[in-house]
Amino acid sequence: MSTKPAKPTTGRKFSFRPTKDGHKEATIAVMGCTGSGKTTFVNLASKSHLRVGAGLESCTDTIQKSQPFELDGYTVTLVDTPGFDDTNKSEVEILTMICDYLREEYAHRRCLRGVIYLHRISDNRVGGTALQNIRFFHRLCGDKALKNSVVITNMWNQVTSEVGTSRETELKSKDIFFKPAIDKGAAMLRHDNTIESAHNAIRHMLHNKPMPLAIQVELVTDKKPIYETEAGQTLLGEMATREQKHQRELEALKKELEEAKRDHDTEAMQDIEEARLRLDAEVGQLIDERQRLLGPDAEGARERRKLSWMRRVVLPFVHLRASVFGICCTGFVFTCLFSIYQWRSAWTHPLAIIQTGFAEGGPSLDEIP
Ligand SMILES: Nc1nc2c(ncn2[C@@H]2O[C@H](COP(=O)(O)OP(=O)(O)OP(=O)(O)O)[C@@H](O)[C@H]2O)c(=O)[nH]1
Ligand SMILES: [Mg+2]
């Protein structure tokens, strides 16, 4: 984003004073996979009318805010975010969008009071994309701010109580799911799609001390580009793993193609060629996405940061040395001038005595031996 962020502030400066009508403000972000019910939750809690997806494609592909609503003396605003597994937008686009929003908020001294992560208890598997969303939730919040977050399981009406409870236990206790977040202080609550349960979940966060998420500190305070943040690095790592996998598959296809050629199996050759083209396109897309995340200027940015490091550390040192050198030179010149003065004083001094002597009626020059 081109806007230059305002000077970052420390947590202490976020006052969150009550508004004129005595209400305190609470902004809470809602994250989760596509179709996990984020917009439904936001609409239910805030009586907003944001668009909810009915079909199989992702619905929310931008960041949208609910209308503010009152809850227990707080003016609450919910921020609906798109999932990282959006149908039409890439992970890089989603991460960039979320980062831009969070950067702008923190640059203007606005912190979230909490983060909600929605998870469908009806999912009988937590696959790659769900795991990726969980990982991003963790990386964006960071260990410190996780204590301000709540993992909400919904869609309980689609499972039996036993199945739901058993899945909930698994989600809570496994490291690949929510155990690390819970260990850092995140809560896990159930949501039964009623306004009461939505408000209860929000109540859980109202007394939190607003604090920046880890990604906000990285972007604003540390001035890191997105690809250098924890979340950016995670995404780059995942893209590299996927690319390696595709390359291995391409190698395997090459061998299969040779065999098919040997056997003169034209049908198999055609199938393999199609698969190869598909994989090639996916690899190409991954390369484009990585380039998009790194930006055309990634090298230049690194150079500029090196320069700014030079400016911060090396230049003051050079200036200090220059100052010391200047002081030494000035001292030397003064010492020289003073010495000359003293020498001249010593040289003129006898004459001055003589002249003074004559003036006071002393002996004439001829009388001096
Ligand atoms: N049974 C049940 N269905 C729900 C619940 N929440 C959402 N849904 C349904 O799940 C579908 C997706 O809901 P959305 O609110 O659009 O999900 P989303 O997370 O905003 O999805 P994206 O905008 O694509 O990221 C809709 O058909 C909702 O009616 C819930 O708590 N229980
Ligand atoms: Mg939505």
From TrEMBL:
Transmembrane segments: 313-341
GO terms, molecular function: GTP binding; hydrolase activity
Top-level taxon of origin: Eukaryota
Coiled coil: 236-289
Pfam families: MMR_HSR1
Keywords: Coiled coil, Hydrolase, Membrane, Transmembrane, Transmembrane helix
Segments forming domain G: 27-91
InterPro entries with a match to the protein in the record: GTP-bd, P-loop_NTPase
Protein name (record): P-loop containing nucleoside triphosphate hydrolase protein
